[in-house]
Specification:
Elements (H helix, E strand, L loop, with lengths): L1 E6 L3 H10 L7 E7 L2 H10 L4 E5 L7 H10 L6 E6 L4 H9 L4 E4 L4 H41 L5 H11 L5 E8 L12 H19 L6 E3 L10 E6 H5 L5 H16 L3 E5 L9 H14 L8 E3 L16 H13 L2 H18 L3 H22 L5 H11 L1 H7 L2 H20 L5 H12 L6 H7 L4 H12 L3 H19 L4 H7 L5 H12 L3 H7 L1
Parallel strand pairs: 1-2, 1-3, 3-4, 4-5, 9-10
Antiparallel strand pairs: 6-8, 6-9, 7-8
Length: 530
């Protein structure tokens, strides 16, 4: 309800205005009344209102003096209406000078008053909408800046945008939070749509827990297709607000999200750094904790400080025999041998108790050997392209997820990819895929689905796609969908959520963020501007 203050020294006028119309049905309530400008001013210093209806001539302080006072001293931005028994042009001029909405004569006409109320209500609704859009834009750009800083790919503009809202703190950690998805060797992995929904619940729960400190968290900072993460920039101020220690804060946060999301939550707490500008170093260590977790005893909270950077047991650095056997099984495209060598590799990693630094060395060795396998099939193959496939789709990400099943799936896919490199197949397949996107962009298209449909390895298909368009399949699909969304924005009156669903996005917030990234503004703003 919008609030109204009536200011008049004649009680019967005040009562008459109150009885003139049904204020409630128009969306208004009488917040109070005053018999002169000074009383009104005192009331406004303690109460907020949306509309003031004031007489001109009153004792102590007139209506015009009240208007001048609240405008010059920024007491309220409420709409102001002067009611007077005098049609004096000089009064009206002064009223207009101080942003008076209307100058009406007594006795107040019912239809005139209703017209004013509806104008005020429409203006208030527009201001509320504009404020929401502005806040949405501001939050989206802030989140973009925060992710850039977290990943260490930022400039002074990004850093200023983050510190403006987050402030400058000395003791900072990055915390990755994930809901453990339901998966096993026997069951199919949880659908990506379900994982996204669970990720959204974790994010909303974290925002609720943080309250006014919600700017410390970010949704999907990794941007990885298969990592459904939520990020938290932890500062010592967060735990100090509760009067508890850092570890107690982590436990409290973990328990809160668990109880709201109803599934097991894993938190990967990166190392402590000196300030926001160094948060990427903490982010990197949190990611290392994630991939190490697959080889460690299962816990709910992993803290980097608990994993010193020493070599494994007995000074082990590289598990060369196990890795070489694993690489050989991929080269042979032998599924049974791949299973066997992965089991042995995981067992050796666990027994060696490698730290994150030495895990990096072993992963680098695996990646190097995989590049060699592909290069051996074709001397002219683009090694940078192979490395991109491996880093985005394969070993680094699969080890990062710490699951043997993921690594087995990758190894089988990469073995098939190598086999197709040998055969040099896939001629004409890209044209079929392009046609599929044009006809079915609104559906849940993935490289795996398209690869299965057109009998081509999904990793190889991704490589072909990147070579032709200079971007990933996912980016191409997002760009195509957003262009279709633009067409619907400009040619229909569909709502944002309807357009999101029509072009293939089940998550409206995700659609809006993608739209902002590609077009630089929200869908609503784009429609208004164009």
């Amino acid at each position: 309800m919008l609030r109204v203050l009536i200011v008049d020294d004649e009680p019967h006028i005040v009562q008459g205005l109150k009885a003139l119309i049904d204020w409630k049905s128009e969306g208004f309530e009488i917040a109070g009344s005053a018999s002169n400008g000074q009383e009104a001013l005192d009331f406004l210093r303690e109460n907020s209102v949306d509309l003031i209806i004031a007489d001109i001539k009153m004792p102590i302080m007139s209506g015009l003096e009240l208007l001048q006072n609240i405008r010059e001293n920024d007491v309220t931005d409420a709409s102001f209406v002067i009611s007077s028994g005098y049609a004096d042009f000089a009064f009206a001029q002064t009223a207009i000078k101080y942003d008076c909405k209307r100058y009406i004569l007594k006795p107040v006409d019912k239809n005139v008053l209703l017209e004013i109320l509806r104008e005020v209500k429409a203006e208030h609704a527009k201001e509320t909408t504009d404020t929401a859009i502005s806040r949405e834009m501001e939050d989206a750009f802030y989140e973009r800046d925060l992710i850039a800083v977290i990943k260490g790919k930022y400039d002074d503009v990004n850093l200023r945008g983050v510190t403006k809202r987050l402030g400058s703190a000395e003791n900072v950690r990055y915390i990755e939070i994930q809901a453990r998805s339901i998966e096993s060797e026997d069951d199919q992995e949880q659908d990506d749509v379900d994982k996204r929904a669970l990720q959204r619940k974790v994010y909303q729960s974290l925002r609720t827990f943080l309250g006014d400190d919600y700017v410390n968290c970010v949704f999907d900072p990794s941007g990885h297709d298969k990592i459904f993460d939520v990020g938290l920039v932890y500062t010592s101020a967060l735990s100090e607000r509760f009067g508890i220690s850092e570890k107690e804060y982590f436990d409290k946060l973990q328990d809160y999200i668990n109880s709201n999301v109803y599934c097991r939550i894993e938190m990967f707490v990166g190392k402590k750094v000196n300030g926001i500008k160094d948060i990427s170093k903490s982010y990197g260590t949190a990611c290392k904790l994630r991939y190490l977790s697959g080889f460690k005893e299962q816990k709910n909270i992993y803290i980097y400080d608990e994993n010193p950077g020493n070599a494994g047991k007995e000074g082990i650095f590289i598990l060369k025999p196990s890795i070489d056997a694993f690489i050989s099984s991929i080269e042979e495209n032998n599924a049974d041998k791949i299973d066997e060598t992965i089991e042995k590799l995981y067992e050796d990693i666990k027994n060696a108790d490698l730290s994150s630094d030495f895990m990096d060395i072993n992963i680098s060795y695996i990646v190097f050997q995989l590049i060699n396998l592909a290069s051996n099939q074709d001397d002219d193959i683009n090694q940078e392209e192979i490395l991109r496939i491996i880093s985005e789709k394969t070993v680094a990400s699969e080890f990062n997820r710490g699951s043997k099943e993921h690594l087995k799936r990758f190894a089988l896919e990469y073995a098939e990819y190598l086999a197709q490199l040998r055969k040099n197949v896939c001629k004409g397949a890209l044209g079929d895929v392009e046609k599929e996107i044009k006809n079915n962009y609104m559906n849940n298209l993935t490289l795996k689905y398209l690869g299965d449909k057109y009998f081509i390895n999904s990793a190889y298909l991704g490589q072909l796609f990147h070579k032709k368009y200079g971007c990933s399949f996912k980016d191409y699909l997002n760009n195509y969908r957003i262009e279709k969304a633009v067409s619907l924005l400009l040619t229909t009156d569909m709502k944002t959520y309807e357009i999101a669903e029509a072009v293939g996005y089940k998550d409206v917030d995700y659609f809006v963020n993608k739209f902002i990234t590609i077009k630089g503004c929200t869908p609503v703003r784009y429609r208004k501007q164009n």
